[in-house]
Amino acid sequence: MRFKSAVIGAGPTGICAVGHLLDLRLYPILWIDPCFNSGRLSSYENVPSNTKVKLFIEFALNCNTFKEIASQNDDVLKALLAMDQDSGCYYDKRYQTITTDKGNVRSMNFSDIWCIELEGSGEKHYSDSTILATGSQPRESRQFPSETQHEIIPIHLDVALDPGRLSQIITKDDNVAVVGSSHSAILVLKNLSQNTSCKSILNFYREELKFAEYKDGWILYDNTGLKGQAATWARNELSKVQKIKRIKLPKEKNKEEEVYLAHLRGCTKIIYAIGFERNPLPIISVNDRVCREISYNSKNGQMSDENGPLDNCFGFGIAFPEKTIDPMGNVEYAVGLYKFTRYMKNIFPVIFKPLLDKLNK
Protein backbone atom coordinates (compact mmCIF):
# COMPACT_ATOMS: atom_id res chain seq x y z
CA MET A 1 0.00 0.00 0.00
CA ARG A 2 1.20 3.50 -0.79
CA PHE A 3 0.84 6.08 1.98
CA LYS A 4 0.77 9.85 1.71
CA SER A 5 2.68 10.24 4.96
CA ALA A 6 4.63 8.09 7.39
CA VAL A 7 5.38 8.89 11.02
CA ILE A 8 8.21 7.04 12.72
CA GLY A 9 7.76 7.21 16.48
CA ALA A 10 4.73 7.30 18.76
CA GLY A 11 5.88 9.48 21.61
CA PRO A 12 4.30 12.91 22.13
CA THR A 13 5.82 14.23 18.90
CA GLY A 14 4.57 11.30 16.86
CA ILE A 15 1.11 11.71 18.33
CA CYS A 16 1.15 15.43 17.46
CA ALA A 17 2.37 14.70 13.96
CA VAL A 18 -0.41 12.21 13.25
CA GLY A 19 -3.02 14.65 14.54
CA HIS A 20 -1.81 17.51 12.38
CA LEU A 21 -1.43 15.28 9.31
CA LEU A 22 -5.05 14.22 9.74
CA ASP A 23 -6.03 17.88 9.94
CA LEU A 24 -4.26 18.45 6.61
CA ARG A 25 -5.99 15.35 5.18
CA LEU A 26 -2.56 13.99 4.27
CA TYR A 27 -3.64 10.38 4.64
CA PRO A 28 -3.56 7.37 4.59
CA ILE A 29 -0.83 7.53 7.25
CA LEU A 30 1.74 4.88 8.12
CA TRP A 31 2.59 5.02 11.84
CA ILE A 32 5.47 2.89 13.12
CA ASP A 33 6.73 2.43 16.68
CA PRO A 34 8.13 -0.55 18.61
CA CYS A 35 5.88 -0.09 21.65
CA PHE A 36 3.15 2.55 21.18
CA ASN A 37 3.35 3.52 24.84
CA SER A 38 3.84 7.29 24.45
CA GLY A 39 7.60 6.93 24.12
CA ARG A 40 10.15 7.53 26.86
CA LEU A 41 7.75 9.95 28.53
CA SER A 42 5.66 7.00 29.71
CA SER A 43 8.54 5.86 31.94
CA TYR A 44 8.52 9.19 33.79
CA GLU A 45 5.12 8.85 35.43
CA ASN A 46 6.60 9.74 38.84
CA VAL A 47 8.49 12.76 37.53
CA PRO A 48 7.02 16.23 38.12
CA SER A 49 6.76 18.17 34.88
CA ASN A 50 8.08 21.64 34.22
CA THR A 51 5.05 22.24 31.99
CA LYS A 52 1.90 23.81 33.42
CA VAL A 53 -1.30 21.76 33.33
CA LYS A 54 -3.05 24.29 31.09
CA LEU A 55 -0.39 23.68 28.43
CA PHE A 56 -1.05 19.93 28.53
CA ILE A 57 -4.68 20.77 27.75
CA GLU A 58 -3.65 23.11 24.94
CA PHE A 59 -1.42 20.29 23.65
CA ALA A 60 -4.41 17.92 23.65
CA LEU A 61 -6.68 20.40 21.89
CA ASN A 62 -4.23 22.00 19.47
CA CYS A 63 -5.54 20.23 16.39
CA ASN A 64 -9.07 19.42 15.25
CA THR A 65 -8.42 15.68 15.40
CA PHE A 66 -7.50 15.88 19.09
CA LYS A 67 -10.58 17.99 19.80
CA GLU A 68 -12.77 15.35 18.19
CA ILE A 69 -11.15 12.56 20.23
CA ALA A 70 -11.51 14.59 23.43
CA SER A 71 -15.21 15.21 22.74
CA GLN A 72 -15.76 11.45 22.47
CA ASN A 73 -13.80 10.51 25.60
CA ASP A 74 -13.24 13.47 27.88
CA ASP A 75 -12.62 11.78 31.26
CA VAL A 76 -8.89 12.56 31.21
CA LEU A 77 -9.51 16.07 29.91
CA LYS A 78 -11.95 16.74 32.75
CA ALA A 79 -9.37 15.51 35.25
CA LEU A 80 -6.81 17.95 33.85
CA LEU A 81 -9.31 20.81 33.90
CA ALA A 82 -9.97 20.12 37.58
CA MET A 83 -6.29 20.60 38.46
CA ASP A 84 -4.46 23.85 39.25
CA GLN A 85 -3.89 25.29 35.77
CA ASP A 86 -0.71 27.16 36.72
CA SER A 87 1.10 24.28 38.44
CA GLY A 88 2.90 21.26 37.07
CA CYS A 89 1.53 17.74 37.17
CA TYR A 90 2.85 14.18 36.99
CA TYR A 91 3.31 12.60 33.60
CA ASP A 92 0.85 9.78 34.25
CA LYS A 93 -1.91 12.40 33.78
CA ARG A 94 -1.11 12.62 30.07
CA TYR A 95 -3.78 12.22 27.45
CA GLN A 96 -4.02 8.73 25.94
CA THR A 97 -4.36 8.11 22.24
CA ILE A 98 -4.76 5.31 19.69
CA THR A 99 -2.33 2.46 18.97
CA THR A 100 -1.37 0.58 15.83
CA ASP A 101 0.92 -2.22 14.64
CA LYS A 102 4.33 -2.35 16.27
CA GLY A 103 7.72 -2.44 14.59
CA ASN A 104 11.20 -0.96 14.26
CA VAL A 105 12.37 0.79 11.11
CA ARG A 106 15.61 -0.61 9.73
CA SER A 107 16.05 1.68 6.73
CA MET A 108 14.52 4.42 4.58
CA ASN A 109 15.41 4.81 0.91
CA PHE A 110 14.17 7.63 -1.32
CA SER A 111 13.69 7.11 -5.04
CA ASP A 112 10.75 9.27 -6.15
CA ILE A 113 9.02 7.93 -3.05
CA TRP A 114 10.18 6.75 0.39
CA CYS A 115 10.62 3.00 0.84
CA ILE A 116 10.53 2.14 4.54
CA GLU A 117 11.82 -1.29 5.55
CA LEU A 118 11.04 -2.86 8.93
CA GLU A 119 13.51 -4.82 11.01
CA GLY A 120 13.12 -8.55 11.25
CA SER A 121 10.33 -9.14 8.75
CA GLY A 122 11.92 -7.01 6.03
CA GLU A 123 8.44 -5.77 5.18
CA LYS A 124 8.47 -2.66 2.99
CA HIS A 125 6.04 0.24 2.92
CA TYR A 126 5.94 3.19 0.54
CA SER A 127 5.14 6.76 1.44
CA ASP A 128 5.20 10.16 -0.25
CA SER A 129 6.55 11.81 2.90
CA THR A 130 8.21 10.80 6.15
CA ILE A 131 8.35 12.39 9.59
CA LEU A 132 11.04 11.36 12.06
CA ALA A 133 9.70 11.60 15.60
CA THR A 134 12.33 9.25 16.96
CA GLY A 135 13.00 10.90 20.32
CA SER A 136 16.03 11.10 22.56
CA GLN A 137 17.65 9.29 25.48
CA PRO A 138 19.82 10.34 28.44
CA ARG A 139 23.25 11.35 27.22
CA GLU A 140 26.01 8.84 27.83
CA SER A 141 28.58 9.75 30.47
CA ARG A 142 32.15 10.70 29.82
CA GLN A 143 34.82 8.27 31.00
CA PHE A 144 36.34 9.13 34.35
CA PRO A 145 39.92 8.34 35.39
CA SER A 146 40.66 4.63 35.64
CA GLU A 147 41.62 4.98 39.30
CA THR A 148 37.96 5.54 40.19
CA GLN A 149 36.04 3.50 37.63
CA HIS A 150 36.05 0.19 39.48
CA GLU A 151 34.81 1.80 42.70
CA ILE A 152 31.75 3.60 41.36
CA ILE A 153 28.46 2.01 40.26
CA PRO A 154 26.54 4.10 37.70
CA ILE A 155 22.79 4.56 38.17
CA HIS A 156 20.71 5.23 35.06
CA LEU A 157 18.98 8.60 34.99
CA ASP A 158 15.58 6.96 34.46
CA VAL A 159 16.01 5.14 37.77
CA ALA A 160 17.32 8.21 39.58
CA LEU A 161 14.27 10.23 38.52
CA ASP A 162 11.90 7.71 40.12
CA PRO A 163 11.94 8.19 43.93
CA GLY A 164 10.69 4.67 44.64
CA ARG A 165 13.19 2.87 42.43
CA LEU A 166 16.04 5.07 43.61
CA SER A 167 15.32 4.40 47.28
CA GLN A 168 15.61 0.65 46.68
CA ILE A 169 19.21 0.80 45.45
CA ILE A 170 20.74 3.51 47.65
CA THR A 171 21.97 2.51 51.12
CA LYS A 172 23.01 4.49 54.18
CA ASP A 173 26.65 3.76 53.36
CA ASP A 174 26.53 5.25 49.87
CA ASN A 175 28.33 8.41 48.84
CA VAL A 176 26.59 9.46 45.64
CA ALA A 177 27.92 11.73 42.89
CA VAL A 178 25.52 13.61 40.60
CA VAL A 179 26.89 15.25 37.47
CA GLY A 180 24.84 18.13 36.03
CA SER A 181 22.79 21.16 37.04
CA SER A 182 19.76 21.04 34.75
CA HIS A 183 16.12 20.22 35.55
CA SER A 184 16.86 16.48 35.72
CA ALA A 185 19.91 16.95 37.95
CA ILE A 186 17.97 19.04 40.46
CA LEU A 187 15.19 16.45 40.61
CA VAL A 188 17.80 13.75 41.23
CA LEU A 189 19.32 15.77 44.09
CA LYS A 190 15.83 16.26 45.50
CA ASN A 191 15.08 12.53 45.30
CA LEU A 192 18.39 11.59 46.93
CA SER A 193 17.95 14.01 49.82
CA GLN A 194 14.27 13.28 50.46
CA ASN A 195 13.87 9.61 49.59
CA THR A 196 17.16 7.93 50.49
CA SER A 197 19.42 7.65 53.51
CA CYS A 198 22.70 8.05 51.62
CA LYS A 199 25.69 9.31 53.56
CA SER A 200 26.64 12.19 51.26
CA ILE A 201 25.93 13.72 47.84
CA LEU A 202 28.45 15.41 45.55
CA ASN A 203 27.04 17.57 42.74
CA PHE A 204 29.49 18.37 39.95
CA TYR A 205 28.35 21.22 37.70
CA ARG A 206 29.66 23.60 35.05
CA GLU A 207 26.96 26.27 34.92
CA GLU A 208 25.32 28.11 37.80
CA LEU A 209 21.64 27.39 38.39
CA LYS A 210 19.39 29.25 35.99
CA PHE A 211 15.71 29.92 36.66
CA ALA A 212 12.98 30.67 34.14
CA GLU A 213 11.69 34.22 34.59
CA TYR A 214 8.12 35.08 33.63
CA LYS A 215 7.99 38.39 31.78
CA ASP A 216 5.14 40.30 30.14
CA GLY A 217 4.00 37.85 27.46
CA TRP A 218 7.19 35.78 27.31
CA ILE A 219 9.56 33.72 29.47
CA LEU A 220 13.26 34.42 29.90
CA TYR A 221 15.22 31.14 29.84
CA ASP A 222 12.02 29.37 28.84
CA ASN A 223 13.85 26.24 27.70
CA THR A 224 17.02 26.30 29.78
CA GLY A 225 15.85 27.65 33.15
CA LEU A 226 14.46 25.67 36.06
CA LYS A 227 10.66 25.59 36.46
CA GLY A 228 8.03 23.92 38.61
CA GLN A 229 8.95 21.74 41.57
CA ALA A 230 12.61 21.66 40.54
CA ALA A 231 12.83 25.45 40.66
CA THR A 232 10.96 25.70 43.96
CA TRP A 233 13.13 23.08 45.65
CA ALA A 234 16.37 24.54 44.27
CA ARG A 235 15.47 28.02 45.51
CA ASN A 236 14.17 27.07 48.93
CA GLU A 237 15.81 23.80 49.98
CA LEU A 238 19.00 22.97 48.08
CA SER A 239 21.33 25.15 50.14
CA LYS A 240 19.82 23.79 53.38
CA VAL A 241 20.68 20.13 52.70
CA GLN A 242 23.95 19.67 54.56
CA LYS A 243 24.82 16.35 52.95
CA ILE A 244 24.92 17.97 49.49
CA LYS A 245 28.25 19.45 48.44
CA ARG A 246 28.29 21.30 45.11
CA ILE A 247 31.56 21.33 43.16
CA LYS A 248 32.02 23.67 40.21
CA LEU A 249 34.04 22.19 37.38
CA PRO A 250 36.76 24.29 35.74
CA LYS A 251 36.15 25.73 32.29
CA GLU A 252 39.34 24.11 31.02
CA LYS A 253 38.53 20.53 30.01
CA ASN A 254 42.07 19.33 30.76
CA LYS A 255 41.66 20.34 34.41
CA GLU A 256 38.40 18.45 34.99
CA GLU A 257 40.18 15.16 35.61
CA GLU A 258 42.05 16.62 38.56
CA VAL A 259 38.79 17.78 40.15
CA TYR A 260 37.10 14.43 39.64
CA LEU A 261 40.09 12.52 41.00
CA ALA A 262 40.19 14.71 44.08
CA HIS A 263 36.54 14.11 44.98
CA LEU A 264 35.39 10.81 43.47
CA ARG A 265 37.62 8.39 45.36
CA GLY A 266 35.13 7.96 48.17
CA CYS A 267 32.03 7.79 45.99
CA THR A 268 30.22 4.49 45.63
CA LYS A 269 27.55 5.42 43.06
CA ILE A 270 27.25 8.04 40.33
CA ILE A 271 24.36 9.52 38.33
CA TYR A 272 24.80 11.45 35.11
CA ALA A 273 22.17 14.12 34.43
CA ILE A 274 23.95 15.80 31.54
CA GLY A 275 21.18 16.17 29.00
CA PHE A 276 19.69 14.05 26.25
CA GLU A 277 20.92 12.94 22.83
CA ARG A 278 19.06 11.70 19.76
CA ASN A 279 18.10 8.07 19.52
CA PRO A 280 19.82 6.25 16.65
CA LEU A 281 18.15 6.90 13.30
CA PRO A 282 17.29 4.28 10.68
CA ILE A 283 19.70 3.88 7.79
CA ILE A 284 18.72 6.69 5.41
CA SER A 285 19.63 6.54 1.73
CA VAL A 286 18.80 8.21 -1.59
CA ASN A 287 18.70 6.00 -4.68
CA ASP A 288 20.45 3.34 -2.56
CA ARG A 289 23.31 5.73 -1.68
CA VAL A 290 23.65 5.79 2.11
CA CYS A 291 23.51 9.28 3.61
CA ARG A 292 26.57 9.90 5.79
CA GLU A 293 25.89 13.31 7.32
CA ILE A 294 22.32 13.74 8.53
CA SER A 295 21.26 17.20 9.70
CA TYR A 296 18.07 19.24 9.98
CA ASN A 297 16.84 22.79 9.52
CA SER A 298 15.87 24.08 12.97
CA LYS A 299 13.34 26.52 11.47
CA ASN A 300 11.20 24.07 9.49
CA GLY A 301 12.31 20.51 10.34
CA GLN A 302 13.70 19.77 6.86
CA MET A 303 16.10 16.82 6.97
CA SER A 304 19.26 16.96 4.84
CA ASP A 305 22.35 14.95 4.06
CA GLU A 306 25.75 15.96 2.73
CA ASN A 307 24.22 16.63 -0.70
CA GLY A 308 21.31 18.79 0.41
CA PRO A 309 17.66 18.50 1.53
CA LEU A 310 15.97 15.09 1.58
CA ASP A 311 12.69 15.26 -0.34
CA ASN A 312 9.63 15.33 1.92
CA CYS A 313 11.55 14.12 4.97
CA PHE A 314 11.23 16.10 8.20
CA GLY A 315 12.26 15.77 11.83
CA PHE A 316 10.45 17.12 14.89
CA GLY A 317 10.35 16.81 18.65
CA ILE A 318 13.10 16.62 21.25
CA ALA A 319 15.50 15.11 18.69
CA PHE A 320 14.90 17.93 16.19
CA PRO A 321 13.62 20.96 18.11
CA GLU A 322 12.80 24.40 16.76
CA LYS A 323 15.42 27.11 17.31
CA THR A 324 13.98 30.22 18.96
CA ILE A 325 15.29 33.67 19.86
CA ASP A 326 13.74 35.55 22.78
CA PRO A 327 13.29 39.36 22.99
CA MET A 328 16.70 39.65 24.68
CA GLY A 329 18.45 37.77 21.89
CA ASN A 330 18.97 34.49 23.74
CA VAL A 331 19.03 31.50 21.38
CA GLU A 332 17.35 28.34 22.70
CA TYR A 333 15.79 25.17 21.35
CA ALA A 334 12.09 24.82 22.14
CA VAL A 335 11.46 21.56 24.00
CA GLY A 336 8.06 20.76 25.50
CA LEU A 337 4.80 19.10 24.49
CA TYR A 338 2.91 22.30 23.77
CA LYS A 339 5.91 23.79 21.95
CA PHE A 340 6.13 20.73 19.70
CA THR A 341 2.47 20.83 18.70
CA ARG A 342 2.44 24.63 18.26
CA TYR A 343 5.49 24.40 16.01
CA MET A 344 3.97 21.64 13.89
CA LYS A 345 0.62 23.42 13.62
CA ASN A 346 2.38 26.50 12.27
CA ILE A 347 4.85 24.81 9.95
CA PHE A 348 2.98 21.76 8.56
CA PRO A 349 0.75 23.77 6.17
CA VAL A 350 3.90 25.42 4.78
CA ILE A 351 6.21 22.43 4.38
CA PHE A 352 3.52 20.08 3.06
CA LYS A 353 1.89 22.53 0.64
CA PRO A 354 4.02 21.46 -2.37
CA LEU A 355 3.22 17.79 -1.73
CA LEU A 356 -0.49 18.49 -1.21
CA ASP A 357 -0.63 20.54 -4.41
CA LYS A 358 1.07 17.71 -6.30
CA LEU A 359 -1.19 15.00 -4.86
CA ASN A 360 -4.36 17.01 -5.43
CA LYS A 361 -3.69 17.69 -9.12
Automatic annotation (TrEMBL):
<protein>
    <recommendedName>
        <fullName>FAD/NAD(P)-binding domain-containing protein</fullName>
    </recommendedName>
</protein>
<dbReference type="InterPro" id="IPR053275">
    <property type="entry name" value="Agnestin_monoxygenase"/>
</dbReference>
<dbReference type="InterPro" id="IPR036188">
    <property type="entry name" value="FAD/NAD-bd_sf"/>
</dbReference>
